[in-house]
Structure formats: C-alpha cells, structure tokens
From TrEMBL:
The keyword Transmembrane helix applies. It is a multi-pass membrane protein. The keyword Membrane applies. Its main location: membrane. The chain crosses the membrane at residues 66-92, 104-124, 136-156, 163-183, 195-214, 226-246, 252-274. Residues 284-303 are annotated as: Disordered. Keywords: Membrane, Transmembrane, Transmembrane helix. Pfam families: Mg_trans_NIPA. It is found in: Membrane. Residues 284-296 have a biased composition (Basic and acidic residues). PANTHER family: CONSERVED INTEGRAL MEMBRANE ALANINE VALINE AND LEUCINE RICH PROTEIN-RELATED. This is Multidrug transporter.
Amino acid sequence: MTIVAIALAVLAAVALALGALYQHDAVADQDNSHNGLSWEHFKELLGNRKWLLGLFILGLGTLGNFLALALAPVMVVQPIGAFSLIVSVLLGVRYRGLKVNRRLVQSVVWCTLGVTVFVALSATTARTQVHLGADAMPLVWITGIIVVIGLVIMIFFKHAPQLVLITAAGLLFACVATNAHLVSVQFLRAGIENVTWQNVVALIAAAALGSWYVQNAYAAGPPEMVIAGLTVVDPIAAVILGSVVLGEAKEAPLWLIIVITITGLVACLGVVVLSRYHPDVRDRENARRDARRTDQLTDTEEC
C-alpha cells in the first residue's frame, strides 16, 4: 500500500505544478493583480477558462493526495510534494521563458534534496494510528488557532510579501493534510460512525483559507515560489503535526529526529534563497527601484 501511496503522491505533485502554472497565468493577466487579489478579481477568475482548468487539475491532484494519505502515514506522503518544485521550474522554463540562474538551481536542489531525505527517513519510522473521539480533538484546536491567525493576517495585512503568504498557505494546508489523514483512517478502520466531524470542519476551513492565500501568492510573485512554499512548509509542518500530535514517530530514535530536523532546515533555507534570488522576484524589485528613482527625480525637478 505504501508504494501505491507514493505513486499517487508523485502524480499529485505533477498535477500541483501544472495546475499552479495555469492559475498563476490567469491571476497575473488581471489588471493590478500585483496589488493583491480583491473579491472583484476573484469573481472574474470564476469565469476564466485557464483558471478553471488549473482548478480542475489541482482538484485531481488533491484527490490523488487524499487517497495517498488514506494509504500511508502523513510523514511519508506529504514530503513527496517537493517533486512538484522541479516540475514547476521545468514548466516555467518551457512555457514562461524562466531564466535559470545559479541561485535558482541551488535553491531547487536544496529544497528537493532536503525533502527527499525527509521522505526516506520518515518512511523508516512512521506508523499510522487510529485517533477517535477526544484523541482527535488536539488537532482540531491546533487547526483552529492557525486558521484564526491566518484570518488576522488576511484582514490586517492586505499587501503581505509573497513569502508570508506562502508560509501561511503551507501551514494551513499542512493542517488540511493531517486532518484528511486522520479522518480517512477513522473512516477506513473504524467506520463512518466514528469519524470526528470537527476534524472535517477544521479541514474545510483550513482548505478554504489556504486556497485564498495561494491565489494572493500567485498575484504577488512567480508560481515557483508558491510551489516551493507549499512543498516545503506544508510537508515539514505536516510531519511535525503527524509526529507530535498523531504520534507517528513514537518509535523514532533521537538521532533520526535530529537528522530529519536538519534536512527540514536545509529545505526551508532553499525556499528563503528562492524568495530572494528568483529571476522574476529580482526583476520586480529592480522595476520598483527604477520607479522610485523616477519619482524622486520628478519631485526634485518640480522643486
């Protein structure tokens, strides 16, 4: 079953990269999309064929990932999503004319290697357990806290940097994955009557808010950054939730936990480097600097 789960997770990773490409293009084509995604812009997207195609592909990927989570522990399935970062960069080069530089390659390698080792080590120790009733509630409360924090950021920081947006989205989708795993295991092993519906509600709330963050992240920068955040922050947070809250790493020795932590930090460092040195990010920053210089020169001439 673990092999089937890994295969489904790989297919889901490809779907994530392809769906992100279509949705980013649709969002980026909108006027003033870099200033944030307004409700009016979002309603326009609902009639955009490219955006809807991306949504359909992402839906297929989500279904594949959900089935994978039902067949294997969170610690095994979620980190495989890092494969989509490689696919995303290749698609960017092919369809968006993305310029590949040394920093971009380094960041992708760090992210991919870090999360790959994460998968390999997690698979050796992760064990799925059934959590029923009160045992499932800690995950509900943790998800609720993250959702509330996400709502606060959304309301009071309307033009947050892309790195903040993808970090928030990654944390929210980590909650989605962990709740999905918990609920699917409850259903398969204990029956629908033992499913804790609070976890289902928490899953839906986190998915809805996380999707909003993803769309705003598309408007704030390149799709590779969104993929990097979702495939690094998401699995690392999901593994933490899976090991600490769901007890999937109870049998793991201390040295293994330390190595897993180091590989996670390496992957996170890759995301930070990508957020600073991605060609599209650098181009946007240069454009903003040129605009500021022009404004300053205009002000000086008027004086």
